[in-house]
Specification:
The complex is a heterodimer of chains A (about 400) and B (about 140). By secondary structure, chain A is an alpha+beta fold. Chain A has 16 helices and ten strands. In chain A, the strands form four sheets. In chain A, strands 1-2-3 form a three-stranded antiparallel β-sheet, with no helix packed on it. A three-stranded antiparallel β-sheet of chain A has the order 6-7-8. A two-stranded antiparallel sheet of chain A has the order 4-5. In chain B, strands 2-1-3-4-5 form a five-stranded parallel β-sheet, with helices on both faces. The chains are: A alpha+beta (about 400), B alpha/beta (about 140). Chains A and B meet through helix 1 and helix 5 of A and strand 1 and helix 2 of B.
């Protein structure tokens, strides 16, 4: 890409626009962006490896700290995976409570995104509004779980805390207040002529792009693909309650905003039904699990940004997972930048990058680089080569041993 | 009181350094700017460059990749400056302290003045921590 005619615009890693340390390189020809590079790793914490040294119950707290915004999505997916491994069904009350927490999180995450998007566009009023109304949801969280973020509600086999009967009317009242505010915000955002002029037709992702990159969540739904784990592979209480998947057709940034804002109302619908279902009813909230058998399990959850996937393998002897694999939604959504940013102007790139609601701390991977030669030490080909070499080595060693053994005889 | 410190205390300009955090402390810091907490009434503003900053709010474990960058940001900040470690990760490493990518905690890398523990600390406690420090500053 080292063409003299092109100008490289670096963004990051510490940039006022980004909360998280990220590094983008925009290759520009005049105002137009011709290519984009993304350099990751500033947030890498080695969670998959750490998880192998922790007890199954501790891992729920660890995966919660993968990401602060979708901090209950990862535990839900992880618990689903371990429950799949053990082959157990959780109590019904726990299912409802899991759905309530999951949907409240979607509400706060989507409002957070709307606020940030407004901020990126220079509409600080939207930023202040959205974040002000989000506080109501955080108050609900504090009431149910005791913390504003990182709720620690999930546990293998159910949930950790119950929702008390006396809290439910208060929660419903707060929820209806929040609903009015979101309605006002939605109308204000969607009717604004400046926002429409700024966002419509920008960063368009076609259906083919979504399929090529395997994008998930609101990004895919904005392009007319109704992919949603809650409908496709129901877990928790999503099978029992009434709700629908929101999709739009055009796939530009405006449609992504529409999908997210309308999803908020679906979430409120789900929470209301779940609260009604658990009101004045008693029930178990957690199943006791004594042993994790040998085997492997997968768990999925529709996080605010798309599908979270967890894979857990157990050997049946130790108390730690032997292998824990995590795939966060931003991992597949971020590469769509290659298709949506190229051909746009620099001033639009900011909102396109923000449009997929990227969460870098979920996504971080590690690659080992040689500082002097400036290349990856272990690329895929290198790994294959190493593997072949090891087999050769073992073959030779065994050959030697075989000879030795023959000599001894 | 030193003239520089007196000027520093008037209106704190804050630069936010996120060094391998889970995003949660960062969001609570942004939350400080929004109507419920609104720290701008105390003259505290988030700025876009470390060269304009009086305070560095640092979050996260400081992993091996951003180690150099954090040092660089600290060097660019005009002295005297206040370094605040926000959250359990920046204070001690938290749940990630045994990880292979851990290069921190923050006080191994740059001198830290204020520790605000919590996972994540509530916005109230971030305000309380900074106010407490300002009172102590002489």
């Amino acid at each position: 890409m080292a063409n003299n005619k092109k100008v490289i615009v670096p963004i990051g890693p510490y940039h006022p626009l980004l909360e998280e340390p990220e590094f983008f390189e925009l290759y520009c020809d005049g105002e137009e962006v011709v290519d984009i590079e993304w350099i990751a790793g500033y947030n890498h914490r080695g969670i998959e490896k750490l998880s192998e040294s922790k007890h199954y119950d501790q891992v729920t707290f660890l995966v919660e700290r993968i990401c602060g915004i979708c901090s209950t999505s990862h535990p839900i997916a992880y618990c689903n995976a371990v429950e799949d491994l053990c082959g157990i069904e959780i109590p019904e009350r726990a299912k409802y409570i899991r759905s309530i927490i999951g949907e409240l999180e979607r509400l706060h995450s989507h409002l957070l995104w709307v606020g940030l998007a407004g901020h990126f566009l220079g509409y600080n009023t939207v930023f202040m509004w959205a974040w002000k109304y989000r506080e109501g949801i955080l108050d609900m969280f504090e009431m149910i779980t005791g913390n504003r973020n990182h709720y620690a509600m999930l546990r293998i086999g159910g949930v950790r805390r119950d929702i008390e009967d006396q809290d439910i009317p208060v929660l419903k009242k707060t929820l209806s207040e929040v609903k009015d505010k979101i309605k006002m915000l939605t109308e204000a955002v969607l009717d604004d002529p400046v926002l429409a002029a700024r966002l419509k037709g920008i960063g368009v992702l076609k259906k083919e792009d979504i399929k090529n990159y395997g994008a998930v969540g609101p990004v895919a739904r904005a392009s007319g693909i109704d992919i949603d784990v809650r409908k496709d592979d129901p877990y928790a209480a999503y099978k029992i309650v009434e709700w629908k998947v929101i999709t739009t057709e055009s796939g530009d940034v405006f449609d992504k905003a529409v999908v997210r804002l309308l999803e908020c109302f679906e979430s409120i619908k789900i929470i209301e039904q779940c609260l009604d279902a658990i009101y004045r009813k008693k029930g178990e909230i957690c199943k006791e699990i004594r042993e994790i058998p040998e085997g492997e399990g997968i768990g999925r959850h529709e996080a605010p940004r798309g599908e979270v996937f967890h894979y857990v393998r157990s050997d049946g002897r130790t108390t730690n997972p032997v292998r824990h694999k995590i795939r966060a939604p931003s991992y597949v959504n971020i590469p769509t930048f290659k298709s949506s940013c190229i051909g746009e102007t620099i001033s639009d790139v900011c909102i396109i990058l923000a449009g997929v609601d990227p969460c870098y701390c979920c996504t971080e991977r590690l690659a080992v680089y040689d500082k002097d030669k400036k290349k990856k030490i272990y690329s895929f080909q290198d790994l294959v080569k190493k593997s072949i070499e090891k087999t050769e080595k073992i073959k030779k060693e065994i050959g030697k041993e075989v000879k030795l053994w023959k000599k001894l005889l | 009181m030193n003239l520089k410190l007196k000027a520093l205390k008037k209106s704190l300009w804050v630069y936010h350094v996120s060094a391998g955090s889970c995003n949660n402390c960062d969001i609570e810091i942004l939350d400080l700017l929004t109507p419920r907490f609104d720290v701008e009434r105390f003259g505290i503003v988030l700025v876009g460059s470390p060269r304009h900053a009086d305070v560095l709010l640092c979050t996260g474990i400081v992993n091996k990749k951003c180690l150099e960058r954090v040092k660089e940001v600290y060097e660019q900040t005009p002295k005297p400056c206040v370094v605040v470690a926000v959250g359990a990760c920046a204070c001690s490493g938290g749940i990630f302290r045994d990880g292979y990518q851990m290069a921190g905690p923050l006080n191994k890398i740059i001198p830290v003045d204020v520790y605000i523990p919590g996972c994540p600390p509530k916005p109230e406690s971030i305000i309380a921590g900074i106010v407490k420090f300002l009172k102590e500053l002489k």
